Amino acid sequence: MLDIFDILGPIMVGPSSSHTAGAVRIGNMARSLLGSEPKAAEIGLHGSFAETGRGHGTDRALVAGLLGMKPDDLRIPRSFELAKQKGFAYSFHNVELKEAHPNTALLTISDETGRTLEMQAASTGGGRIRVDRLDGIDVNFTGAFNTLIIHSTDVPGKLAEVTRELEQGNLNIANMNLCRAKRGGSVLMVIETDQKVPPLVRALIEELKDVTRVTYYEREDT
């Protein structure tokens, strides 16, 4: 069943929902999952993003999202200027990604402490996005829910400990996915919740043994 946003599209600064609104959301998602203010970004453009993205403002939209803007922000066309004022360094290049959606960006971003994030995400139409890879691990989530990204080592019982903290916080899990590159290595837990996840719950999860990092994307109000 279609909702009003499927029919009319998102409230946004144009010209294109996929090349502009979706690109802003990709940048904003990467910023959220870094968990801090990004200071530098290397941005690869694949497929249609590489071929026609600059004409549609995709480059400015990605930078706008990395600066924390939403798709309806009137400052999006000035994002390059604003990035320069903030000392945010960025570069673009074209990439070819195997079996990737035509509207895909590969972002490698870092903050002033050296913390980094690599994220591959696609703009799938109507302003929607899908995150396909995080730090080299295949994932699949859209930002349609409040989303916890939990980095940990691959040890027995860790998922149960995390879900126990969510239960005690009276939070309902909408979707959940555990992704790992190899047995005994690093694990990404992607947990989507119906409710916003309070800072205290996030802090309690991050204090769990073998959890190395917790970041969070809060769903846009619609």
What would you say this structure looks like, in words?
It is a single chain. The strands form two sheets. The chain has a six-stranded mixed sheet. A four-stranded antiparallel sheet has the order 8-9-7-10, sandwiched between helices. The model is unreliable at 1-15 (pLDDT under 50). The longest helix has 18 residues, at 17-34. By secondary structure, the chain is an alpha+beta fold. It has seven helices and ten strands. The chain is globular.
Summed up, what is this model?
The chain has 222 residues and is an alpha+beta fold.
Look up the CATH topology of the largest domain: 60s Ribosomal Protein L30, Chain: A
Report the C-alpha radius of gyration, rounded: 17 Å
CATH superfamily of the largest domain: D-3-phosphoglycerate dehydrogenase, domain 3
What's the mean pLDDT score? 90
Give the overall shape, derived from the CA principal axes. globular
- Helical proportion, percent range: 25-40%
Overall tally of structural domains: 2
Q: Enumerate the strands of the largest sheet in spatial order, edge to edge or round the barrel.
A: 2-1-3-4-5-6
> Any low-confidence stretches, pLDDT <50, length ≥5?
1-15
Q: Tell me the β content.
A: 35-45%
CATH C-level category of the largest domain: Alpha Beta
Instruction: Give me the count of strands.
Output: 10
What is the CATH architecture annotation of the largest domain? 2-Layer Sandwich
